UniProtKB/TrEMBL annotation:
Protein name as annotated: N-formylglutamate amidohydrolase
Source superkingdom: Bacteria
């Protein structure tokens, strides 16, 4: 099984890459049986259909990379040394999660939880190749254009009480407190996201994960932004099924935002 899928641009390439690290649903055959069957059936922590939301991007010249493995196997947006992304008492799952976001144990028994050797194996076999490919894509676009923007695309349930008690804003742009991207790109992204009827937040409650924080280097013209959005914006009220009408409104905002970012990249 391929670890990721790359969708190449269908027109002239632009210096934007979209990363979708949490929409995968596959498990390696050797460990699939280790997970609780009921939880595995719904995979609640999956960023369902995010790749479908961005299916217009290749027509704009944007390269898309989507991970195929479930984040329960390996979380590509965590630090490889398991250094926490936040220190505010929220539930933070590890690079090889043992619970879902609600704190439910995902393995059938504690004996099946990955030990240090297994974690190291998964990092080498599944985590490193994705990050290497991201870096290769960034290097290619940087060499061609002198600049590049990596847009890390995510979604989450509209309320997760183990992270915060209140409902999340509709869309949350993260740039680690404006450290990972040029100010003009941040301003353009926020303005584009606000063209819809959605409540937009900046760096709260999410500042961007490991991908955004580790790869962004504006001084070298390598810019990264993370977009987290509520699943209910494009799925049904139970956040189980894709809702084409709702998704259409989201896609319109995303397309406008990315079109504007392409133009802003020409200016910086």
């Amino acid at each position: 099984m391929d670890l990721f899928k790359i969708t190449v641009p269908k027109k002239d390439i632009v210096p934007i890459i979209i990363s979708i690290p949490h929409a995968g649903t596959h498990f390696p055959s050797g460990i699939r049986k280790n997970y609780r069957k009921r939880l595995r059936k719904y995979l609640d922590d999956t960023d369902w259909f995010v790749d479908k939301l961005y299916d217009f991007a290749p027509e704009m010249g944007i390269t898309v990379i989507k991970a195929n493995l479930s984040r329960w196997v390996i979380d590509l947006n965590r630090d490889s040394e398991n250094i926490p992304l936040y220190n505010d008492n929220r539930l933070i799952t590890s690079i090889t999660p043992v619970t879902d976001f609600l704190g439910n144990e995902i393995y059938k028994s504690k004996k099946l939880i990955p030990n240090a050797k297994e974690v190291k194996k998964r990092i080498k076999k599944y985590y490193n190749p994705y990050h290497k490919k991201l870096q290769d894509l960034i290097n290619d676009r940087k060499q061609q254009f002198g600049k590049v923007l990596l847009w890390d695309a995510h979604s989450i349930r509209h309320k997760v009480s183990t992270i915060q008690h209140d409902v999340f804003p509709d869309m949350i742009l993260g740039d680690n407190d404006q450290k990972t991207a040029h100010t003009k790109l941040i301003e353009t992204a926020l303005a584009g996201l606000k063209t819809g009827d959605f409540k937009v937040s900046h760096n709260s409650p999410f500042k961007g994960g490991q991908i955004t924080r580790s790869l962004g280097n504006p001084k070298e013209n390598i810019h990264t932004l993370q977009l987290e959005m509520n699943k209910i914006l494009y799925m049904d009220d139970n956040e189980l099924h894709y809702n084409k009408e709702r998704a259409g409104k989201v896609k319109k905002v995303l397309k406008t935002t990315l079109e504007n970012l392409i133009e802003t990249l020409k200016e910086i």
